[in-house]
Write a structure and sequence with these properties.
mainly alpha; 51% helix; Phage_CHP; Phage gp6-like head-tail connector protein
Length: 93
């Protein structure tokens, strides 16, 4: 899976900087929950690099865009996430 240290590195936060740990952990948990809600297999072992990148992209997105929307700007989930997770989604018939 993705560690807090990997998320900090991806978001370009110094590893020794503890001020954002709680906020980043929430973003990390939210990213994993979001992908699980899309029926993505988050229990793969080994964890595929494409899923790791999707989680990191979501963490950075959630960390940088704390509000759902504002009058000045609206943000969508990064488009590349859909393509990264597509092969790992469980399909129900």
């Amino acid at each position: 899976m993705v560690t807090l240290e990997e998320a900090k590195t991806h978001c370009r936060i110094e590893l020794e900087e503890p001020d954002f740990d709680g906020e980043l952990q929430i973003a990390l948990d939210a990213a994993v929950d979001h992908l699980k809600s899309l029926n993505v297999d988050m229990d793969a072992d080994p964890f595929p690099p494409a899923l790791k990148q999707a989680v990191l992209m979501l963490v950075a997105h959630f960390f940088e865009n704390k509000e759902a929307a504002t009058p000045e700007k609206t943000w969508l989930i990064p488009i590349g996430v859909d393509r990264l997770i597509a092969p790992y989604r469980r399909v129900s018939l």
